[in-house]
Amino acid sequence: MAKIRLIPQTRGFYTLFDRAAQNLVTTAQLLLDLLEHYPDRRDLVEKIKECEHEGDAVTHEIVQLVNKTFVTPIDGEDIYDLATALDDVCDFMDQVADELNLYGVDEVPPEAIEQAGVILKTVGKLADAIHCLEGLKDVSGTLVEIHTLEDEGDRIVRGATARLFRDGHDPLVVIRWKDIHEHLEQAVDSCERSAHVLESIYLKNR
After folding, report:
1. 102 Cβ partners below 8 Å, 6+ apart?
2. How many angstroms separate the Cα of 114 from the Cα of each of 22, 41, 153, 160?
3. Span 146-159, pLDDT tens digits
């Protein structure tokens, strides 16, 4: 039977969240490299898959620690929500990498590369904010930057979708890239959801 800890295990949670955030940065860099050099760097798809497995493992560790800790440093539900949102970011990036191969993509549009660049910037800001969780350092400016980047992602995906329909592409190409653009945007949306959870944590605990 697992032991229940009565003393808040602050370091364990913060270390795991830092690990999850850094894994997102690594995954986002790999995704950007993949899109910039696809199909020559198909090998990066497997590296992204390894990062997705690492993200799953960290999420599992966080949930297990919540279940074993009687007094958590922040609300247990917030811990679970943040872990889930971070895992979603990684899952969407992995899905995009898989779809490049599954859909037989032979050319990546510039907007997809732009989206991957936004994801990389956003997870970098998210990692900075998560690193400040311990001690609840002020990250309001960083959270605003994440929201601004999400707006930029929205703008890019709208333009990309409009161009798909405007330029008379083959219907299969339109369907293929509409899916991929949307999943790239969902990765950014999950970053914003993580930012909302962080904002809630700061409001409750400061």
Report:
1. none
2. 21, 18, 8, 10
3. 999 999 999 999 99
Distance linking the first and last C-alpha atoms of the chain: 35
Residue positions counted in the chain? 206
Nearest-angstrom CA–CA distance, 107 and 36: 10
Model-wide pTM > 0.85: yes
CA gap 63, 58 in Å, rounded: 9
Structural domains in the chain, CATH included, are 10-205 (1.20.58.220)
Peptide bond into 109 cis (omega under 30): no
Cβ-Cβ contacts under 8 Å for 20 (sequence gap 6 or more): 55, 58, 59, 62, 83, 86, 87, 130
CA pair distance 2, 135, nearest whole angstrom: 28
